[in-house]
Design brief:
4 strands
């Protein structure tokens, strides 16, 4: 299986709901890093799993939509605790529908909220 990954970073805010997590219940910012990993068993006629430039631009556009926003105020987080687990799923689902390459069999998003904590979500296609 081949894998290609692209990574971007951005700052966004959130506050956790539904429990007593001290300072995490107050609005605060994270310097997120998101890594998109695409996997497939075959390459295209150019020897690529996928055109990285196309994937970079799609990831950048998605990240730009979250940059400097408060996650709790966005419709995709309505009724959800804006955890990195939920956020990684939302990003993965959003990116997966934008990937048109037919040879991609798995899409994974790994999302760090700091240098030691991350969550990921995978979709098999």
């Amino acid at each position: 299986m081949y894998s290609v990954a692209v990574k971007r970073d951005f700052i966004a805010q959130h506050f956790l709901i539904g429990g007593d997590w001290g300072a995490e219940n107050q609005r605060h910012a994270h310097h997120y890093q998101v890594e998109l990993v695409l996997e497939g068993s075959s390459l295209d006629q150019h020897g690529y799993l996928v055109d990285i430039v196309e994937i970079e631009s799609g990831l950048q556009a998605l990240v730009d939509g979250y940059r400097d926003k408060t996650l709790n105020e966005l419709p995709e987080f309505a009724g959800l605790n804006p955890s990195i687990e939920h956020f990684s799923r939302i990003l993965c689902e959003s990116l997966s529908v934008k990937i048109t390459a037919g040879n991609i069999r798995r899409v994974t998003v790994r999302l760090w909220e700091n240098e030691i904590a991350w969550a990921s979500f995978c979709l098999d296609r």
